[in-house]
């Protein structure tokens, strides 16, 4: 069996979530062929109305799939508010995904929060896997309380490069951040975070309901 899923979001960092979703699907018991597709939007001003619904519609047209993931960063909003926004968007789709299982992906506060736990992966993404510069890694259980996880992550990446302060300024930190999840072998430490644990439960429930976990 081959399972194809599409991840639709509202930013430009969603591709970093593909290894996370692959891992979660495998952890649920699925052992067949797996293809993850990511539809990122740098800008989207098409039409009026529910823009998220339009993004989902566009993503599904570009990347047909068996399973849909919709990403929204929680930022300062409650998780249940983001779930309601996604649910409303799905209802507003011209092309109804009623027969397609959909899962909300809502990191607290943002995607970068889930990239802040693996020091070795950060060093590899920074291009300096054997670096000796001490990295002030945040405590895992406090990640969801960080006010600016993206800024924290970018600072760690720049420090991990081992470059001089002048050369750090021109380092491609954004593209390096996207690579971090590719170097993570085990995302299980993130189970200590409520949003990640909720996502894993949703994935397990959906995979079981669809009979994809056998």
Report on the architecture of this protein:
The structure is a single chain. This protein has helices spanning 18-27, 51-62, 79-91, 119-125, 149-161, 165-168, 173-179, 194-209; strands at 2-8, 33-39, 67-71, 102-105. The model has no long low-confidence stretch (mean pLDDT 91). The longest helix has 16 residues, at 194-209. The protein is globular and about 55 Å long. The protein has 2 domains: 2-108 and 193-209, 3-Layer(aba) Sandwich (Rossmann fold); 112-183, no CATH class. 38% of the residues lie in helices and 11% in strands. A 4-stranded parallel sheet has the order 2-1-3-4, with helices on both faces. The relative contact order is 0.17. With 214 residues, it is an alpha/beta fold.
């Amino acid at each position: 069996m081959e399972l194809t899923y599409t991840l639709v979001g509202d930013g430009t960092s969603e591709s970093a979530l593909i290894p996370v979703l692959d891992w979660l699907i495998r952890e649920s018991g699925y052992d067949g062929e797996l293809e993850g597709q990511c539809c990122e939007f740098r800008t989207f001003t098409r039409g009026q109305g529910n823009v998220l619904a339009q993004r989902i519609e566009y993503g599904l047209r570009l990347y047909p799939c068996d399973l849909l993931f919709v990403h929204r960063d929680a930022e300062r909003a409650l998780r249940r508010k983001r779930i309601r926004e996604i649910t409303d968007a799905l209802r507003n789709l011209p092309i109804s995904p009623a027969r397609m299982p959909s899962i909300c992906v809502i990191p607290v506060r943002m995607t970068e929060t889930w990239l802040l736990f693996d020091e070795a992966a950060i060093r590899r993404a920074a291009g300096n896997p054997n670096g000796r510069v001490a990295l002030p890694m945040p405590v895992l259980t406090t990640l969801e309380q960080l006010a600016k996880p993206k800024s924290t992550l970018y600072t760690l990446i720049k420090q991990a490069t081992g470059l001089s302060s002048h050369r750090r300024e021109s380092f491609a930190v954004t593209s390096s951040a996207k690579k971090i999840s590719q170097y993570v072998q085990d995302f299980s430490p993130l189970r200590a975070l409520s949003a990640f644990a909720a996502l894993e439960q949703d994935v397990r429930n959906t995979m079981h309901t669809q009979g994809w976990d056998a």
